[in-house]
Amino acid sequence: MQSLKDIVPAALNNINTKFIVxxxxxxxxxxxxxxxxxxxxxxxxAVHFQMWGDECxxxxxxxxIRLENGIFSYNRNNLLLRAGKRGKAEKVGEFTIAYVxxxxxxxxxxxxxxxxxxxxxxxxxxSPFSQVFPPxx
Length: 137
Hints:
Low-confidence stretches: none
Strand order of the largest sheet: 1-3-4-6-5
Number of strands: 9
Radius of gyration: 14 Å
Number of domains: 1
Structural class: mainly beta
Order of helices and strands: EEEEHEEEEE
CATH architecture: Beta Barrel
Helix content: under 10%
Strand content: over 45%
CATH superfamily: Nucleic acid-binding proteins
Shape: globular
């Protein structure tokens, strides 16, 4: 099981991790498909999780999700975690996981590694916390 902080962006369907849904945005239609964005976190980091179709209704804040064969990908220059076509997201519990909201992996600008263009490395921190789901003051 990978921790969110140790996952680097790459277009590979090989991310196996567990996290809690901290917050969830509104459901929107993208074409004919429902889509929504959530802030998810584990004990090492947070990231934006993109949900499609039935996933939008299946998961709520406080749900603990196990992701198998997920993928980190870019959508409009933002790094997102998602199940993808080959991945599987499944609720495995509620409310009983330690988590942090910083660093937010979706608020880091990533660039190809000069020594290996298939690997991405952090280039700059855009914001220490989610700009989509700001922390409660």
